Amino acid sequence: xxxxxxxxxELLRELHAEVARAVALDFAEQxxxxxxxxxxxxxxxxxxYLAAARAVLxxxxxxxxxxxxxxxxxxxxxxxxxxxxxxWIAAIxxxxxxxxxxxxxxxxxxxxxxxxxxxxxxxxxQKVAGRQALAQHVDPVxxxxxxxxxxxxxxxxxxxxxxxxx
Length: 166
What we know:
7 helices
C-alpha cells in the first residue's frame, strides 16, 4: 500500500525553494477554498493575504503585503474560533513563502529563527480537512479518510506543477 502523506512529504522536501514557496501558497488557497465554500470576510482576507504573497514571489511587489497582513489579522481576530483555526494556514503559508519580506517590512520581528516550510503547510491543510470531517462525523475513520484525501489532492497538485527534469 502506498502511504500518500509519507510520499508527499518526501517529495516536498526535495522541491527547489522557489517552487516550494509557490506550492505552499497553492496548498493554503485550496484549503481556504474548501474550508469556506460560501466565502466570508475571513476567507476573503486570507485569500487576499495569499495573493499579496504570490505577488511578492512572482513580481517582487511587496506593496500590498503589509496591508494584507494587517487586514487578515484584523478579520482573524473578529472571527469564530473554528474559522480562525481553518484560516490559520494562510499565515503559515505566507510565512513559509515570504518571511524575509515580512521582516524587512517590519510586519514581523526577526526574534524567531523558525520558518515554516511547504511540509508544514501541507500538514496543516491535512489537519484542517480532518477537523472539518470531525465536525461533520464522529467516526475517526472519516477523519483519517479526509486527511488522506487532502494529501492525495496535494500530491496530484504537486505532480501537476512540478517542472520536467529534462
